[in-house]
Amino acid sequence: MKTKANQSAAEKNITMVALADIQPSGFNPRKRFDETSLYELAESIKRQGVLQPITVRPVDGTDRYGIVFGERRYRASVIAGRDEIPAIVTELSDEEAEEMAITENLQRKDVTPVEEAAAYQRLIESGRHTVQTLAQLFGKNENYIRTRLKFTALIPEIAALLDADEITISVAAEICRYGEDIQREVYEKHLQDEGTYNSWRGLKAADVARRIEQNFTTDLQYYRFDKTECATCAHNTNNLLLFHDGGCGHCANRTCLAEMNASYLMERAVQIMRNQPEVSLCRDRYTANETVVERLTASGYEVETLDRYTAFPSCPKEPKAENFNDPERYGEARTRYEQQWADYMEQEEEITRRSGTGEITVYAKIGQKEITFCYVENMTEAQTADGTPAPAPLSPVEKLEKQDERNKEIALERTVEDTKKQILEADITGGKFSADEDTMLYFFLLSSLRKEHFAAVGIAEDKQYITDEDKMGIIGNLTVRMKTIIRRDFLVANFKGAYGNNTVATLLLDFARRHMPEELANIEREYNGVYEKRHQRIEEKKAVLLVQERARERKVTQPEEQPQPEEIAA
C-alpha cells in the first residue's frame, strides 16, 4: 500500500495516503457536489495543499481505504492532480462509520434538504436513534427533524426540484403530505414545465396547499370506498357541470367525503382484525387518517406509531390485450407480468413464513385513504447489543394477551391522570379527617424519616431507603411512639429552609429549645460570646468617633475673633 509517514504530523496520527488507494463511501449523505466550488477548491489545493486531513478507515479484505468524511477534499485533490492526501486512518465498524459520516457531513452548508432527510431516515432505520435523539445530536428541534423526514416521501422528480431550489422547503412540505399518485399528477400537470400557464412554480406554500386541496383531494378516483351512490349524487361535479372530463368526478361536499372515507377505513380495519387476528394495527407519524385512528382507539383497538417499517411488495398489474395494438408487444408484456407475478408470490410466501416463525411482526397501516400492509423485523439474538440472549418471539395469542394487559394498564394510567386534574376542583372542605386519610398522611410523612430511625419503625438499618411497600407495612402497624418519630422527622426535614431570622428559623429554635435545650444554650453561648466581643469593639470605636465628631462640631460653631480698631488703622 502506497503510504508513508508524515513526520511533521506524526503526533496527530495524520498519514499521507495515495489517492489511488482511497474509495468513496456510500455512507456520505451528500450525493451532489457543486462543480464550480469543487474546481475552486482544487485550485486552492494546487497552491496551498490540503489544509485539513480527511478521515478514512481500512476496507476489510483489501489494501484500500474507505472515506468516512472528506470526500469533497478527496475529489478536489484528484482534480488538482495530486498523488496523495493527508488522512487520519481509524478503525471503525460500519455503524460507527455511517454515524460519523452523517454527523460530520450534515454540518456542511451545501447538504440539500433531501440528502439531509435521507440521512436522518437512515439513522432512524438503524435502530440507534429516534427523532428525539437526532434533535439532541444535531442541535435541532424535533419539528425540524420531522419536517425533514417527510421529504423521504417525495417522488424523485419533486425531490430534484427541491434540491435545485426550484421549489421551496415549505412547498415541498405541503406536497409530501400526499401519496405518490397525487404527487405525480401534481408534478406532471403543474411542476414539470416552468413558464406554462398552469405552472405552480413560484407559488407560496399556502397557495399550493389550497390548490392541491381543491383540485386533487376531492377527486373521487383516489378513494377506495364504494362510489355507487356518488354516481348520482348532486354534489358530484359530473352531475353539476354541462361538460366534464369523465372519470369519477370530484366531490363538492367535503364533510360527506371525509365521513365516507373514514367509515370505509374503519370498516376495513375492523374486518382485518376479525379475519387476521395475528396482524396488528399501526400508523406513521405523518400520513395517518387521524379520525380513523381516534375511532379505532375509542373502540378498544391499539394503533401503534411506527418510525420504521418495510412495506409489503406491490401486486403487479396484469396487462390487458385491448390496451395493445401489437399482439407481439402484448405477449412481451404478458411474459414480464408472469415473471413479476412469480416474484411477487415468492416474496409474499417468504413474508408469511417469517411471520409464522416470529421473525417479523405484520401490521395493517392506517393511511389517509387506504390501509396497506407492512412489517417490522423482530429482535433476534444476533441483533442484541449487549450479547445477552433475546427473549423468544411471542406467539399471536401471547401478543394479544400482552396487548390486553397493556390496555388495562393504560385504562388505569388515564384514570389516575384525569383524577389528578379533577381532584383540584373538588370540594374537600367538608367532613371529619378520616382514619384512611390519616394513613395516607403518614405514607407521605415517611418520605422524611431519617435513616437512624429506621429501626424504630421496624426497618433494617442497612437499607438505603424505604420503599412504598415498606411504607404500607409501617402504616399498617403504627404506634403512638412511631407516629411521634415520623412527625418530628418531617419537621426536621422542613427546618432545612431555616435561614437568618425568617419564620422557619424561629420555629427551628423553638423546636430546639424543647428537645435539646442544653445543646442550644451552648450554641447560643458560643456565638453570643463572639458577638459580645465584636459588639464591645464596635462600641469602643463608636465612642472615639463620637468624641471626634463633637470636637469638630464645637470648632465649627465657635465664632472667629474680630480684629481691634487700632489694628485696622495701623
List the main descriptive attributes of the protein structure presented here.
51% helix; 21 helices; five-stranded mixed β-sheet
- Helix content bin: 40-55%
The helix count comes to 21
Poorly predicted ranges (pLDDT <50, ≥5 residues)? Answer: 1-11
Strand order of the largest sheet: 1-2-6-4-5-3
Structural class: alpha/beta
Radius of gyration: 40 Å
Distance between the termini: 118 Å
**What is the mean pLDDT?**
83
How much strand content do the residues show? 5-15%
Shape: extended
Q: How many strands appear in the DSSP assignment? A: 11
* Biggest sheet character: 6 strands, mixed
Overview in brief:
With 570 residues, the protein is α/β, with parallel strands linked by helices. The protein has 21 helices and eleven strands. Among the domains are: 257-393, no CATH class; 435-515, no CATH class.
Give me the secondary-structure topology.
Elements lengths: L2 E3 L8 E5 L3 E2 L11 H14 L5 E5 L6 E5 L1 H9 L4 E6 L4 H12 L7 H13 L5 H8 L3 H9 L5 H8 L5 H7 L4 H12 L13 H11 L21 H4 L13 H22 L4 E4 L6 H9 L4 E3 L4 E2 L15 H30 L3 E7 L4 E7 L18 H27 L12 H11 L22 H8 L4 H15 L8 H13 L1 H41 L7 H5 L1
Describe this structure in words.
The chain has 570 residues and is of the alpha/beta class. Among the domains are: 257-393, no CATH class; 435-515, no CATH class. 51% of the residues lie in helices and 9% in strands. The strands form two sheets. A six-stranded mixed sheet has the order 1-2-6-4-5-3. A five-stranded mixed sheet has the order 8-7-10-11-9. Helix 12 (254-275) packs across helix 13 (290-298). The longest helix has 41 residues, at 517-557.
